[in-house]
Each structure stands twice: as C-alpha cells, then as structure tokens.
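Sample entry (143 residues):
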Amino acid sequence: MDATPEQVARRLGTSRRRVVSAARRLGVGRLDASGWLFSLEDEEALRAELGVDAGGPLPRSQMRVLAELSLRPRGLVSARAVAEACGLAPATASAAVKALLAAGFIVVRDGAMHADVLHPRWLELRPLLREVRPPESRGMEAA
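Predicted structure, serialized as tokens:
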C-alpha cells in the first residue's frame, strides 16, 4: 500500500518538506492527481537517505548526538567525529554538543565525550534514543 509524504515523514520523524526533497533527489516515489505517493521500497530508500528520528524533548540534532554517544562506550573525541558518526554538518554537531554539555547530558572522561547515563532525565530519553537511526550514507546534513 502506498503512503503519502505526511505518513512517511511521521514514521521517519521528519518533515514533509525533507521527504519530498529527498524523493526528488533520489528519484523515488510517484506523482498522481492527489500528489506524491511512496511504495515500501521508496520508503526504505528514504529511510536510508534521511535516517530515523524519534522526536522527543530535545532537538533532532541533539537526539542524534546522544543516540550515537550512547552506542559508543569509548566515546568520541571531537565534535567533528560526532558529526561524521551522526551524519550531521560539523557546525550542527558542534552546536548540539555544546548544548548537551551545558545541559549535563554529555560528560568528558579521558579526553572523550560520553553520554551521561546518570543524568536525571536519561531514563526518559533512553527509549526514544533507541529508535534513532542515522542516515546510512552518513552524509552531512543541516538540522
């Protein structure tokens, strides 16, 4: 069954505009009298291109950074390394890291940044962070 851009956007945790823009770039989906429609294969291509964002109490870029750091027991050493791992632009990742450090969601140990799993809000965020998937292409993306 085909899905509308709004349905795909809801499942990927993004906007209709990003879905349609990626569809044009990838050449997936089809236009009919009612607008864009996407098959399951189209949706998989969009998922690989855009990643999956769970939403939540923090901005999308911060959720991606926390999700990535939560998967890395040795942490990451720089905002640029975070950007590459998350598929974000370096400036976006740097801003997210600064905000998360200021809020106490990231701690620095032995020269590497780690997600602070002892933060009072960690249990609230953990299930949402498990749903986050970075783009498979790991290309830079502005938030």
